[in-house]
Protein backbone atom coordinates (compact mmCIF):
# COMPACT_ATOMS: atom_id res chain seq x y z
CA UNK A 1 0.00 0.00 0.00
CA UNK A 2 2.78 2.40 0.94
CA UNK A 3 4.62 1.58 -2.26
CA UNK A 4 1.49 2.18 -4.38
CA UNK A 5 0.86 5.42 -2.54
CA UNK A 6 4.39 6.61 -3.28
CA UNK A 7 3.99 5.66 -6.95
CA UNK A 8 0.68 7.50 -7.22
CA UNK A 9 2.16 10.52 -5.45
CA UNK A 10 5.10 10.62 -7.85
CA UNK A 11 2.77 10.26 -10.84
CA UNK A 12 0.62 13.14 -9.60
CA UNK A 13 3.66 15.37 -9.05
CA UNK A 14 4.87 14.66 -12.60
CA UNK A 15 1.43 15.46 -13.99
CA UNK A 16 1.20 18.67 -11.99
CA UNK A 17 4.70 19.68 -13.10
CA UNK A 18 3.85 18.90 -16.73
CA UNK A 19 0.65 20.95 -16.62
CA UNK A 20 2.50 23.77 -14.86
CA UNK A 21 5.16 23.87 -17.58
CA UNK A 22 2.54 23.75 -20.33
CA UNK A 23 0.57 26.50 -18.62
CA UNK A 24 3.67 28.64 -18.21
CA UNK A 25 4.65 28.20 -21.87
CA UNK A 26 1.09 28.95 -23.04
CA UNK A 27 0.90 32.08 -20.88
CA UNK A 28 4.33 33.20 -22.09
CA UNK A 29 3.29 32.65 -25.70
CA UNK A 30 0.08 34.64 -25.22
CA UNK A 31 2.00 37.47 -23.57
CA UNK A 32 4.54 37.38 -26.41
CA UNK A 33 1.79 37.64 -29.05
CA UNK A 34 0.39 40.66 -27.23
CA UNK A 35 3.58 42.71 -27.12
CA UNK A 36 3.31 46.02 -28.92
CA UNK A 37 4.91 46.31 -32.35
CA UNK A 38 4.51 48.94 -35.04
CA UNK A 39 4.57 49.76 -38.73
CA UNK A 40 4.93 53.01 -40.61
CA UNK A 41 2.32 54.70 -42.74
CA UNK A 42 2.91 57.73 -44.91
CA UNK A 43 0.06 60.15 -45.58
CA UNK A 44 0.86 62.97 -47.99
CA UNK A 45 4.55 62.15 -47.43
CA UNK A 46 4.36 62.60 -43.67
CA UNK A 47 5.21 59.40 -41.83
CA UNK A 48 3.43 58.25 -38.70
CA UNK A 49 3.97 55.16 -36.57
CA UNK A 50 0.99 52.88 -35.96
CA UNK A 51 1.20 50.54 -32.97
CA UNK A 52 -0.61 47.22 -32.72
CA UNK A 53 -0.22 43.85 -30.94
CA UNK A 54 2.11 41.32 -32.54
CA UNK A 55 -0.63 38.74 -33.13
CA UNK A 56 -2.61 41.27 -35.20
CA UNK A 57 0.42 42.18 -37.26
CA UNK A 58 1.09 38.48 -37.95
CA UNK A 59 -2.56 37.85 -38.87
CA UNK A 60 -2.55 40.86 -41.19
CA UNK A 61 0.66 39.65 -42.84
CA UNK A 62 -0.75 36.20 -43.62
CA UNK A 63 -4.06 37.72 -44.71
CA UNK A 64 -2.23 39.84 -47.28
CA UNK A 65 -0.08 36.88 -48.33
CA UNK A 66 -3.05 34.65 -49.14
CA UNK A 67 -4.90 37.50 -50.83
CA UNK A 68 -1.89 38.11 -53.09
CA UNK A 69 -1.79 34.41 -53.96
CA UNK A 70 -5.48 34.26 -54.81
CA UNK A 71 -5.46 37.50 -56.82
CA UNK A 72 -2.40 36.47 -58.83
CA UNK A 73 -3.98 33.07 -59.51
CA UNK A 74 -7.18 34.72 -60.74
CA UNK A 75 -5.34 37.19 -62.99
CA UNK A 76 -3.15 34.64 -64.79
CA UNK A 77 -5.85 32.00 -65.08
CA UNK A 78 -5.79 30.50 -68.56
CA UNK A 79 -2.42 32.06 -69.46
CA UNK A 80 0.13 29.97 -71.31
CA UNK A 81 3.77 30.91 -70.82
CA UNK A 82 5.41 33.56 -68.66
CA UNK A 83 5.06 36.29 -71.29
CA UNK A 84 1.28 35.87 -71.37
CA UNK A 85 1.16 35.85 -67.57
CA UNK A 86 3.18 39.07 -67.38
CA UNK A 87 0.98 40.87 -69.91
CA UNK A 88 -2.15 39.78 -68.04
CA UNK A 89 -0.70 41.19 -64.79
CA UNK A 90 0.43 44.37 -66.53
CA UNK A 91 -3.02 44.83 -68.08
CA UNK A 92 -4.77 44.19 -64.77
CA UNK A 93 -2.55 46.66 -62.91
CA UNK A 94 -2.91 49.37 -65.53
CA UNK A 95 -6.68 48.98 -65.84
CA UNK A 96 -7.57 48.49 -62.17
CA UNK A 97 -5.22 50.83 -60.30
CA UNK A 98 -6.04 54.47 -61.01
CA UNK A 99 -4.00 57.65 -60.68
CA UNK A 100 -4.38 59.44 -57.34
CA UNK A 101 -7.54 61.55 -57.70
CA UNK A 102 -7.24 65.26 -57.09
CA UNK A 103 -7.65 66.19 -53.41
CA UNK A 104 -7.22 62.53 -52.36
CA UNK A 105 -4.48 61.73 -49.84
CA UNK A 106 -1.34 59.94 -51.00
CA UNK A 107 -1.10 56.93 -48.69
CA UNK A 108 1.93 54.69 -48.44
CA UNK A 109 1.84 51.59 -46.23
CA UNK A 110 1.18 48.06 -47.52
CA UNK A 111 1.08 47.11 -51.19
CA UNK A 112 -2.17 45.23 -50.66
CA UNK A 113 -3.83 48.40 -49.44
CA UNK A 114 -3.06 50.02 -52.81
CA UNK A 115 -4.93 47.17 -54.49
CA UNK A 116 -7.88 47.59 -52.12
CA UNK A 117 -7.98 51.40 -52.54
CA UNK A 118 -7.62 51.01 -56.30
CA UNK A 119 -5.49 54.14 -56.70
CA UNK A 120 -1.81 54.89 -56.31
CA UNK A 121 1.30 56.79 -57.31
CA UNK A 122 3.83 55.78 -59.97
CA UNK A 123 5.99 53.74 -57.58
CA UNK A 124 2.88 52.02 -56.18
CA UNK A 125 1.82 50.92 -59.66
CA UNK A 126 5.27 49.39 -60.16
CA UNK A 127 5.15 47.80 -56.69
CA UNK A 128 1.76 46.18 -57.29
CA UNK A 129 2.84 44.85 -60.69
CA UNK A 130 6.17 43.48 -59.43
CA UNK A 131 4.56 41.90 -56.35
CA UNK A 132 1.93 40.09 -58.41
CA UNK A 133 4.64 38.86 -60.78
CA UNK A 134 6.55 37.43 -57.80
CA UNK A 135 3.38 35.68 -56.62
CA UNK A 136 2.97 34.25 -60.12
CA UNK A 137 6.37 32.57 -59.94
CA UNK A 138 8.47 35.19 -61.74
CA UNK A 139 11.24 37.18 -60.05
CA UNK A 140 10.48 40.89 -60.21
CA UNK A 141 11.33 44.27 -58.66
CA UNK A 142 11.19 47.93 -59.58
CA UNK A 143 13.81 50.64 -59.62
CA UNK A 144 14.54 54.07 -61.07
CA UNK A 145 16.73 54.64 -64.13
CA UNK A 146 18.58 57.85 -64.99
CA UNK A 147 18.35 59.51 -68.38
CA UNK A 148 21.48 60.01 -70.49
CA UNK A 149 22.76 63.14 -68.74
CA UNK A 150 21.59 61.86 -65.30
CA UNK A 151 19.35 64.86 -64.64
CA UNK A 152 16.07 62.93 -64.36
CA UNK A 153 14.89 59.50 -63.24
CA UNK A 154 12.11 57.24 -64.47
CA UNK A 155 10.62 54.27 -62.65
CA UNK A 156 10.55 50.87 -64.34
CA UNK A 157 9.61 47.35 -63.29
CA UNK A 158 11.91 44.45 -64.11
CA UNK A 159 10.74 40.85 -64.54
CA UNK A 160 13.03 37.88 -65.13
CA UNK A 161 12.23 35.71 -68.13
CA UNK A 162 14.14 32.61 -69.22
CA UNK A 163 15.93 34.70 -71.81
CA UNK A 164 16.83 37.48 -69.36
CA UNK A 165 15.43 40.49 -67.52
CA UNK A 166 12.65 42.45 -69.23
CA UNK A 167 11.49 46.04 -68.63
CA UNK A 168 7.98 47.41 -68.02
CA UNK A 169 6.35 50.70 -67.09
CA UNK A 170 3.26 49.64 -65.13
CA UNK A 171 2.21 53.26 -64.50
CA UNK A 172 1.71 53.87 -68.21
CA UNK A 173 0.95 50.28 -69.20
CA UNK A 174 3.99 50.05 -71.47
CA UNK A 175 6.19 47.08 -72.37
CA UNK A 176 8.79 46.48 -75.05
CA UNK A 177 8.95 43.98 -77.92
CA UNK A 178 11.92 42.83 -79.99
CA UNK A 179 11.91 42.49 -83.77
CA UNK A 180 10.64 38.92 -83.48
CA UNK A 181 7.52 40.01 -81.61
CA UNK A 182 8.55 38.69 -78.18
CA UNK A 183 9.04 40.72 -75.01
CA UNK A 184 12.46 42.35 -75.33
CA UNK A 185 15.19 41.64 -72.78
CA UNK A 186 17.51 44.27 -71.33
CA UNK A 187 20.33 42.93 -73.50
CA UNK A 188 18.22 43.33 -76.64
CA UNK A 189 17.09 46.79 -75.59
CA UNK A 190 20.67 47.93 -75.02
CA UNK A 191 21.44 46.65 -78.50
CA UNK A 192 18.63 48.72 -79.98
CA UNK A 193 16.27 45.82 -80.66
CA UNK A 194 13.09 47.03 -78.99
CA UNK A 195 9.97 49.09 -79.54
CA UNK A 196 7.55 50.37 -76.92
CA UNK A 197 4.02 48.99 -76.87
CA UNK A 198 1.22 50.64 -74.89
CA UNK A 199 -1.64 48.68 -73.31
CA UNK A 200 -3.69 51.72 -74.31
CA UNK A 201 -2.23 53.46 -77.32
CA UNK A 202 -3.79 56.90 -76.96
CA UNK A 203 -1.96 59.29 -74.67
CA UNK A 204 1.20 57.15 -74.34
CA UNK A 205 4.34 59.00 -75.41
CA UNK A 206 6.41 55.90 -76.11
CA UNK A 207 9.26 57.91 -77.63
CA UNK A 208 10.10 59.37 -74.19
CA UNK A 209 11.79 56.13 -73.13
CA UNK A 210 14.82 56.18 -75.42
CA UNK A 211 17.00 58.41 -73.23
CA UNK A 212 16.48 56.10 -70.23
CA UNK A 213 16.95 52.75 -71.93
CA UNK A 214 20.65 53.37 -72.56
CA UNK A 215 21.26 53.22 -68.78
CA UNK A 216 19.54 49.89 -68.09
CA UNK A 217 22.94 48.30 -67.44
CA UNK A 218 23.34 50.53 -64.36
CA UNK A 219 20.69 48.57 -62.44
CA UNK A 220 21.77 45.97 -59.89
CA UNK A 221 19.80 42.89 -60.93
CA UNK A 222 21.38 40.61 -58.32
CA UNK A 223 19.85 41.99 -55.11
CA UNK A 224 16.22 41.91 -56.18
CA UNK A 225 15.50 39.27 -53.49
CA UNK A 226 15.60 42.04 -50.87
CA UNK A 227 13.24 44.45 -52.63
CA UNK A 228 9.84 45.04 -51.04
CA UNK A 229 8.01 43.46 -53.97
CA UNK A 230 9.97 40.23 -53.53
CA UNK A 231 9.57 39.69 -49.77
CA UNK A 232 5.82 39.67 -49.28
CA UNK A 233 5.65 35.88 -48.85
CA UNK A 234 6.52 34.38 -45.42
CA UNK A 235 9.58 32.36 -46.50
CA UNK A 236 11.13 35.20 -48.47
CA UNK A 237 10.45 37.63 -45.63
CA UNK A 238 12.12 35.27 -43.16
CA UNK A 239 15.09 34.77 -45.49
CA UNK A 240 15.54 38.53 -45.95
CA UNK A 241 15.26 39.09 -42.19
CA UNK A 242 17.94 36.48 -41.40
CA UNK A 243 20.31 37.84 -44.05
CA UNK A 244 19.87 41.38 -42.75
CA UNK A 245 20.51 40.24 -39.16
CA UNK A 246 23.69 38.46 -40.26
CA UNK A 247 24.88 41.54 -42.16
CA UNK A 248 24.08 43.74 -39.16
CA UNK A 249 26.09 41.46 -36.84
CA UNK A 250 29.06 41.38 -39.22
CA UNK A 251 29.04 45.17 -39.62
CA UNK A 252 28.79 45.64 -35.84
CA UNK A 253 31.84 43.38 -35.26
CA UNK A 254 33.85 45.20 -37.93
CA UNK A 255 33.16 48.55 -36.23
CA UNK A 256 34.39 47.31 -32.85
Blueprint of the fold:
Elements: H1 2-33, E1 36-43, E2 46-53, H2 54-75, H3 82-96, E3 98-99, E4 107-108, H4 111-117, E5 119-120, H5 122-135, E6 140-146, E7 153-161, E8 164-169, E9 174-177, H6 186-190, E10 195-198, H7 210-213, H8 234-255
Parallel strand pairs: 3-5
Antiparallel strand pairs: 1-2, 1-4, 6-7, 7-8, 8-9, 9-10
Helix pairs in contact: 2-5, 3-5, 4-5
Any overview of this molecule?
The protein has eight helices and ten strands. The chain has helices at 2-33, 54-75, 82-96, 111-117, 122-135, 186-190, 210-213, 234-255, and strands at 36-43, 46-53, 98-99, 107-108, 119-120, 140-146, 153-161, 164-169, 174-177, 195-198. β1 (36-43) and β2 (46-53) form a beta hairpin. The protein is of the alpha+beta class. The strands form three sheets. It has a five-stranded antiparallel β-sheet. It has one domain (36-255): C8orf32 fold (Roll), CATH 3.10.620. The protein is elongated, with a radius of gyration of 25 Å. The model has no long low-confidence stretch (mean pLDDT 87).
Any guess at the CATH architecture?
Roll
Q: Radius of gyration over alpha carbons?
A: 25 Å
- Strand line-up in the sheet with most strands: 6-7-8-9-10
Count of alpha and pi helical runs: 8
Helical amount: 40-55%
The dominant shape is elongated
Arithmetic mean of pLDDT: 87
At the first level of CATH, the class is Alpha Beta
Q: Distance between the terminal alpha carbons, to the nearest Å?
A: 67 Å
Q: Major sheet, described briefly?
A: 5 strands, antiparallel
Q: Give the helices and strands as they follow along the chain.
A: HEEHHEEHEHEEEEHEHH
Q: What is the SS-derived class?
A: alpha+beta
How many separate domains? 1
Strand content: 15-25%
Amino acid sequence: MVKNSLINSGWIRRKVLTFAIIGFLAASFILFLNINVSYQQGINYEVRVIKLPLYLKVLDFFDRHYNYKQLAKDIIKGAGGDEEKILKILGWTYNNIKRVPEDFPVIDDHIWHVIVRRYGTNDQYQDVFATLCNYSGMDAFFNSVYNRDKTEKKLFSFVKLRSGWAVFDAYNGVYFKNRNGYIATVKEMLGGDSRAIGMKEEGIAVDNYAEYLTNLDSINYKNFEFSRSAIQSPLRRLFAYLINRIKYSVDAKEKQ
